[in-house]
Amino acid sequence: MESKICTAAEALSGVRDGALVAANFWGPGTPTYLWRALFERDVQNLTVCINNYNPTPDVVRETGGPDPTLLLSQTRKIISAYCATRHSDVVDIDMLNMRVMEGTLEFENTTHGNLIMRLHAGAMGLGGIYSPVGVGTSIEEGKEKRVINGVEYIFEEPIVPDLGLVSAAKADKLGNLVYHGTARAANPVIAMASKYTVAEVFEIVEPGEIEPDVVVTPGAFVDRIVLIPEDAPSSKERRLGGLRARREHQLKKAVAAGTTRGGKA
Fold first, then answer.
1. Which of 46, 159, 183, 246 lies 20 to 30 A from 151 at CA?
2. Which residues pair with 197 in a beta bridge?
3. Is residue 168 part of a domain?
4. Can you point out the beta strands (E) in 35-74?
């Protein structure tokens, strides 16, 4: 049997322009290493399906923190439940807004629950789902509405990504995956729904070394396994590094302006 273990470049070599890419985004479970590798692949006109589209400052990105806008110039459509930033110095949010207004970037707004259920519908081979979430809001625009047993629903189409990028703590050589804590998040359903799934992991073990009861994503849903290099930051280190860099950046701005949180510097 062909080995599933390879480099990120090898795993993503078949990705083509126009692909629909799905990934869990923000905090633990974010496939930051693969996301950067996809950026290096330089594919264009991507549709990006992620739960949180949170632009971050360059200072956070440079520490290895996750930033979906790394692929903004290569993206033609975003499907997301949340798009915002808490940082006034993020240039990419202005670029994003400008492209949406120009019509060169489409943003499809959804909800966290509907997004996961649409991926699940894709994984199950369903033709879609009827959801009451979003009725009477912008979510329903352009969608079929139906009353079932006196309740109004909107029809949500399934999402079947061409490429699913997932991040797990451990894999065996067959691709069985184990996640830690909230890193689980949307990763399992993305792996199931995607036509081609690549998992980044911090450890690879022999088949049989992972107890069957703790396997969350069976290897049948994983096409390629990429071991994150030792010099790449772990999820925890990425997160702490990003927060530390953000605080340092804010402090420098406050000092430059002559103020701190306590008042005058």
1. 159
2. 164
3. yes
4. 46-50, 52-53
User: Token pair for residue 148?
Assistant: 């079932």
Q: What is the pLDDT of residues 172-228, one digit of tens each?
A: 999 999 999 989 999 999 999 999 999 999 999 999 999 999 999 999 999 999 999
How far from the centroid of its chain's Cα atoms is residue 26's Cα? Answer: 7
The 10 Å Cβ neighbour count of residue 51 is: 23
Residue 77 tokens read as: 């459509």
Is the Cβ–Cβ distance between 19 and 47 less than 8 Å? yes
Element (H, E) at 242: helix 235-257
Q: Take residue 129 and report the two structure tokens written for it.
A: 């789902």
- Number of structural domains (the chain) is 1
CATH number at residue 222: 3.40.1080.10
pTM: 0.84
The tokens describing 54, both together, are 């949170």
Asked if residue 147 is part of any domain, the answer here is no
Q: Name beta bridge partners: 154.
A: 131, 145
DSSP 141: T
Residues 6+ apart with CB under 8 A from 115: 49, 51, 79, 80, 81, 159, 186
Q: How many residues does the chain have?
A: 265
Identify the CA nearest to 25 among candidates 70, 58, 90, 88.
70
Whether 149 is covered by a domain: the verdict is no
What is the domain extent for residue 188?
A: 8-127+159-260
Give the model confidence (pLDDT) of 103-147 as tens digits. 999 999 999 999 999 999 999 999 999 999 999 999 999 999 999
> CA 12 to CA 10: how far, in whole Å?
6
Asked whether residue 1 is domain-assigned, the answer is no
